[in-house]
Amino acid sequence: MTNSRTQAEIVRQSLKRRYRKERRFRLYGMTAIAVALLSLVVLFTDIIGKGYTGFIKTTMTLEVVLDGEQMYLEDPTDKDQISMADFQAPIIAALQRYFPEAQSRKDVRELSRLSGNYASNQIRDLLQAQPERLGTTQTLEFLVHDTVSVYVKHADNPAYSIRLTEQQQRWVDELVEQGVVTTSFNDVFFSRGDSREPSNAGILGAIVGSLLTMLVTLVIAFPTGVAAAVYLEEFAPQNKLTDFIEVNINNLAAVPSIIFGLLGLAVFIGVFGMPRSVPVLGGLVLALMTLPTIIISSRAAIKSVPPSIREAAEGIGASKMQVVMHHVVPLAMPGMMTGSIIGMAQALGETAPLLLIGMVAFIVEVPEGFFSSATVLPVQIYQWASSAEQGFVELASAGIMILLAFMISMNGLAIWLRKRLERRW
Amino acid sequence: MKLKTALTSVALAGSLAAVSVPAMARDTVNIVGSSTVYPFATVVAERFGRNTDFPTPKLESTGSGGGLKLFCAGIGTQHPDITNASRRMKKSEFEMCQNNGVKDITEVKIGADGIVIANSKDADQMDLSLRQVFLALAKEVPDPKGGDKLIANPYQKWSDIDSSLPNKEISVMGPPPTSGTRDAFVEIAMEGGCKTFDFIKAMDKKEMRSVCHSMREDGLFVEAGENDNLIVQRLAQDKDTLGIFGYSFLMENANQIQATTINGVEPTPDSIADEDYPVARSLFFYIKSAHVSVIPGIKEYAEAFTSESAWGDNGYLVDVGLIPNPRNVRMDVAKKVRNLTPMTGNEL
């Protein structure tokens, strides 16, 4: 009696301590989650705060007189004349109508620098496409120079420095007031490739490059990975060799991604002589990188198919092949796909292996196929983030938002597939 | 069955990649090389793409050495056509090229990159040696008491370094580490001054770099952000401060600031182009002549680069910070580009 009472007492005494311990443990857990959430919030506010202006472009709408005499151009179909014509002149003339006082060489130079570097190309392209417009007056929308864009968008932000002269600032203020210089949604960002000028730079090239690369990765890694998993799980004999292969696949999943880049450089470029910087090459390298992830997750999915299904199929006389192809693989498919999508999302964010195979490059044109030079989203972000021009800061953050959107939708697809197709036994 | 078709498609894709690639022609010029030349080359490439019917060349920033290695690897569309370099090709690299069948190489000297140390025109012009620059700005310097020992930089006044220098506080503003100007300054000026100490020169490369490339962080050297204009304004106000920036800013603000002479040499376009001024380097690119007839646009790109509107005294590359070659050098180089005059190897 006395003995059991003391025991109960001991328990009662320690009870408080044990509850405290549990509360403390829970608190640790909640702190960990809070830290994770907080850093996520900080990251997102920083990126969105910096990046939303990347989706805004600054343009000026001018009424330009396409005066042939002023441009030294008589015949827009003549290539020699086109190459020697001064397409900046109509833009300067149009701006001078707002600021008639700007006549000196220096003033004209400063005025001319308000328009983007490729504004004159716009006039040239228009005249080349429609020679009959020569001599007419056109209302055209030009991108402004980057310094102007920074001034219009970030004049109050101390993180940006204004590189316009005081006179230029006065002019821009005037143009904004008159509604000549306006801001609108940045469609350039979604319709062009890279540029050295932030306002002309777009992310379409990188998006297309990423899609092409991912397509190659998917086509190679998914079937190979699934086939390897099915063979290892269902057909391979249990011996030392299989064990050895298994250990190696697991190790391969932990190999730093840059190693796969070195492999790609040595084998695909060195031995097979593939061209550098093309999506096929990037896709192959990333496929090698994702393969172990896909094999491991596919094997886990196959393992989770209950033995009763196999036994039932075998019981009604199905061959091993039929059991696997008709029952096991279809049932394991959701798990396999989820694993593959996670692996692909990982590959989408990868830059290190691409560095060595030349996909970290300045590529202006949007890639047209699997064999044209391309870069990918994370590389584009890296390049913008490391550029000196101020306008690239916001583009880098905008690019990160696009990349995150892709990641989230891929992970969302994985979750949806799992919810939709998964069966519970 | 799905698996079967998938497998065949893999085999197909694999064989396609392996078989069809070597035969594939390329219509884009591939350029690799120096990260210093990269900002100039990308601007030329983009304009070239927009102003001609040729596709925009593809540029990779691999560093001068990495670029030359790729460039010299051989002839064929998988190898680059042009490589940029912020130094001249070495004899050994030229020989590597020759051994790999890259026989005819045209050297194009595009200009120079110079960094100046300047102060207000109201103050006295200074003259420094690279050694003095290093002693004034490094985080750790050799113990002034002697011996092969490094100590935290003790110098507070210029006269502490050398009694011939003014008795004024050391105060220098410069670009942050993200800037290319900073890279070049650290690599040429700091390392140059640092290597005048024999025991530092004898260190292994990595250790030597960490000693030579660290700027002092005790407030005497101030990082002024990317805005070189701001440095110029501050210099005009505070005449005891020196500023470090690219040569083009000195040119634009010559009414307010003056350059410190280094080893007695004043930075001028001529002294920078001739490399008399020590904190300068010439920039180059190399053309693989064997590719010119195969890949369209190589020669045209080189000609666009060497046109007066690009690399001339008022060209758009000057806006990006290039120091043009003297006009007679430009004429010579442009002629070499037109004729694709190959290097003989003796000039190196």
Strand content of chain B: 15-25%
* Helix count from the secondary structure assignment of chain B: 17
- Overall residue-averaged pLDDT value of chain A: 90
**CATH superfamily label of the largest domain in chain B:** Periplasmic binding protein-like II
Class of the largest domain in chain B in CATH?
Answer: Alpha Beta
Element order, helices and strands of chain A? HEHHHHHEHHEHHHHHHHHEHH
| CATH level 1 class label of the largest domain in chain A | Mainly Alpha
Largest sheet descriptor of chain B: 9 strands, mixed
Set out the fold topology.
The complex is a heterodimer of chains A (425) and B (348).
Chain A: H1 2-51, E1 56-65, H2 68-71, H3 79-84, H4 89-98, H5 105-112, H6 119-129, E2 137-143, H7 146-154, H8 166-177, E3 181-185, H9 188-191, H10 204-235, H11 240-252, H12 257-271, H13 279-303, H14 307-315, H15 320-348, H16 352-356, E4 361-362, H17 377-385, H18 391-421
Antiparallel strand pairs in A: 1-2, 1-3
Helix pairs in contact in A: 1-18, 10-13, 10-15, 10-17, 12-13, 13-15, 14-15, 15-18, 17-18
Chain B: H1 2-20, E1 30-33, H2 38-51, E2 58-60, H3 64-71, E3 82-85, H4 91-99, E4 105-120, E5 127-128, H5 130-137, E6 140-142, E7 150-152, H6 158-161, E8 172-174, H7 180-194, H8 198-201, H9 205-212, E9 221-223, H10 228-237, E10 242-246, H11 247-252, E11 257-259, E12 261-262, H12 269-273, E13 280-288, H13 289-292, H14 298-305, H15 308-311, H16 316-320, H17 327-339
Question: Which terms would index this structure?
Answer:
heterodimer; A: 425 residues; mainly alpha; MetI-like fold; 18 helices; elongated; B: 348 residues; alpha/beta; D-Maltodextrin-Binding Protein, domain 2; 2 domains; nine-stranded mixed sheet; two-stranded parallel ribbon; 17 helices; 41% helix; 17% strand
How does this structure look, described?
The complex is a heterodimer of chains A (425) and B (348). Chain A folds into 3 domains: 2-52; 56-199, no CATH class; 204-421, MetI-like (MetI-like fold, Orthogonal Bundle), CATH 1.10.3720. Helix content of chain A is 66%, strand content 6%. Chain A has 18 helices and 4 strands. Chain A has a 3-stranded antiparallel beta sheet. In chain A, helix 13 crosses helix 15 (320-348) and helix 17 runs antiparallel to helix 18 (391-421). The longest helix of chain A is centred in the N-terminal third of the chain and has 50 residues, at 2-51. The relative contact order of chain A is 0.10. The model of chain A has no long low-confidence stretch (mean pLDDT 90). In chain B, the strands form 3 sheets. In chain B, strands 1, 2, 3, 4, 8, 9, 10, 11 and 13 form a 9-stranded mixed beta sheet that branches. Chain B has a two-stranded parallel ribbon with strand order 5-12. Chain B folds into 2 domains: 26-112 and 282-339, Periplasmic binding protein-like II (D-Maltodextrin-Binding Protein, domain 2), CATH 3.40.190.10; 114-280, Periplasmic binding protein-like II (D-Maltodextrin-Binding Protein, domain 2), CATH 3.40.190. Helix content of chain B is 41%, strand content 17%. Chain B is built from 17 helices and 13 strands. In chain B, a hairpin with a 7-residue loop joins strand 6 (140-142) and strand 7. Chain B is α/β, with parallel strands linked by helices and 348 residues long. Chain B is globular, with a radius of gyration of 24 Å.
